[in-house]
Design goal:
By secondary structure, the protein is α/β, with parallel strands linked by helices. The protein has two domains: 137 residues, Aspartate Aminotransferase, domain 1 (Alpha-Beta Complex), CATH 3.90.1150; 257 residues, Aspartate Aminotransferase, domain 2 (3-Layer(aba) Sandwich). It is 39% helix and 16% strand. It contains 15 helices and 17 strands. The protein has a seven-stranded mixed sheet with strand order 4-10-9-8-7-5-6, with helices on both faces. The chain has a four-stranded antiparallel sheet with strand order 13-14-17-16, with helices on one face. A two-stranded antiparallel ribbon has the order 1-2. A hairpin with a 5-residue loop joins β11 and β12. α2 packs antiparallel against α10, α3 packs parallel to α10 and α4 packs parallel to α5. It is globular, with a radius of gyration of 22 Å. The protein starts with a helix and ends with a helix.
Length: 411
Amino acid sequence: MAYDVYKIRELFPMLRKDKTMQGKPLVFLDNASTTFKPRSVIDACSSYYEEHNSNSHRGDYDLAYDADMMVQKTRDTIAKFLNCDSREVVFTSGDTQALNLLAYGYALKFLKEGDEILLSIEEHASNLLPWFKVAQLTKAKVSYIPLNKYGQITVQNLKKALSSKTKIVSVAHVSNVLGYTVDIKEFAKIAHQFGAVMVVDGAQSVPHSKIDFKDLDIDFLTFSAHKMCGPTGIGCLIGKYDLLDRMDSFSLGGGMNVTFHKDATIEYLNPPSKFEGGTLNLSGIYGFKAAVEFLMDLGMDNIHAHEVELQEYALKRLKGYKNIYIYNAHARGGIITFNIEGVFSQDEATLFNHKGIAIRSGLHCAKMLPEFLGVPSTCRASFYLYTTKEEVDAFVDALINGGDILDAYFS
């Protein structure tokens, strides 16, 4: 079947035709931050509260059994989606918690003084701050893979940065600012040759392209459901089972132990349960399953092709405007990062808001990247599976025609 974006939009309540912002038709181009939810996901979340409300792993009655089964079915669905084992699917509150679990459950346990954690300056805060803290606690060293002139992390520069002291390499598969895709399979191969563990922040890749965990041969993958049509407050850590088995739990409580004793010894459950202390976000898990099924039905290759087509179309229309700076024209995906000459990025975003267009401005949680770009902040427009060419036209026209920022306050 042809990819029909207009039929797809009909499945999203937030994309109803009467939805406005500032009295204009809503054009939502902040999908790298979060995405809208189809009716199937909303209904799945509601169904937990309306039809299945009970706790998981804590009851000997039908409702609790149903919750247990949905947790497992969701693991199985995610495992199929990413080609991993369902035992390797750990539920977290999102990408941030997943990376913190890795930092404190794996790195804090195994790193020692002088070991190296290899990152890049374009990483999101969630893939920097936990490693910073663990480095302080273990006296390990944080180092960075140099960017090329376009802001890309390349295989060549990875090879230059690796050493015998490198124990962890952690990078975003796709940058949330510049949108470049890293050759993760080759990165993992090289990192393993140096004995390093390969961690991939998949927040901007899992929602947009087909990911094969086993084929990539990475060690850990993290991502959030809300960036892939799913609910907020739920996400995953995917890890090779033997590594998960060696890790320590980070959040301790009910549901993740076999027993504990007066002498303070604890016997933990096997992964993934040993990382899931306390009550899970069960309504989120119901919605997570529906979101993954929605994406699988559309086809990840179709979604990626749609986004690339829109980005290329936008860049073609913007070509030749010397007052518009595009910082990632060589990327191929759904992100366009830009500035207008002489215009503060937040003012530009405010003017877009006045025109009914939602974009992002600022540092995008990548607070070391502006030094490389040579600007204090940028604007970002990000497309997704439901973005249309008409919305891209509205964005481009607003960018080309400009306007007075005071119009946003006094019109």
